[in-house]
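This section describes the prediction task in plain terms. A model, or a person checking by hand, is given the sequence of a single protein chain and must write out its three-dimensional structure as a string of tokens. No templates, partner chains or ligands are provided. The sample shown here is typical of the held-out split.
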Amino acid sequence: MAAYWLYWLLMKFLIWPMLIGAAILEVSGDAVIRKGLRGGGWAVIVPGCVMLASYGVLVNLVKWDLSKLLGVYVAFFAAVAILWGRIVLKETVPVSTWLGLALIIGGGLVIQFGQK
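The expected answer:
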């Protein structure tokens, strides 16, 4: 019984870091595969594939309905992807992209906190 409550508490408080971690794995895995396809070869592509598979496992550890889970996750993924491009890749992000991100995050909030 104690193990159940410990698991419940961990899942309750670790959901948000798990979604962020999954988004980081997905974005970085995609970036690694992209690098491999542009000259790095299979030695770079394979670790990217492992990262993408790891994202799939991590995000699905969250015990929500799939529609809610992926609806909310899209907001995390979009934010991490845009921030990755801006911070890591030093890309210029236009105002329209930031506005689109705000809309996506708004949608994620509606999915998470909307009618139950």
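For orientation: Residues 15-113 form one domain.
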